[in-house]
Amino acid sequence: MTIDTMFFKRCIQTLDKAYSLVNQVEESSIEYDMYRSACVKEFEIILEQAGKLLRKCLKDFAHSPKMVDRMIFKDIFRQAAQHDLLTLDQAERWLEYRDNRNNTAHDNGKKFAEYTLRLLPEFIKDATALEQSVSLHAKRVADD
Question: pTM for the full model?
Answer without folding.
Answer: 0.91
